[in-house]
Give the backbone structure.
Amino acid sequence: MGGFNLQELMSKAKAQYEALQKKMQEAVVEASSGGGTVTVKMDGRKQLLSLRIDPEAVKAGDVEMLQDLVLAAVNEAARKIDAQLQSTVGGMLGGMGIPGL
């Protein structure tokens, strides 16, 4: 088969997948909105680890603005995780030596 070993390839893919899973579980990103009014931390599984809201934002009483800031911070954290995942996967696939990829 011209040196193409499917079993070896599958073994490499499984090892890469497990490494990716571990990396993403350990990944933590932070994102904020409103100039730091709302700050969130999110892990690689897109689970929120923390949410911090500046007390001054609550005093303002603008609930709709605060809701928008929370959404913006959470969405930005999710984008950061996606970018990190894409970067990690791209690097891993490049190291697998799969012809044509």
User: Anything to note?
Assistant: The longest helix spans residues 63-94. Helices lie at 6-26, 55-60, 63-94. The chain has a mean pLDDT of 86.
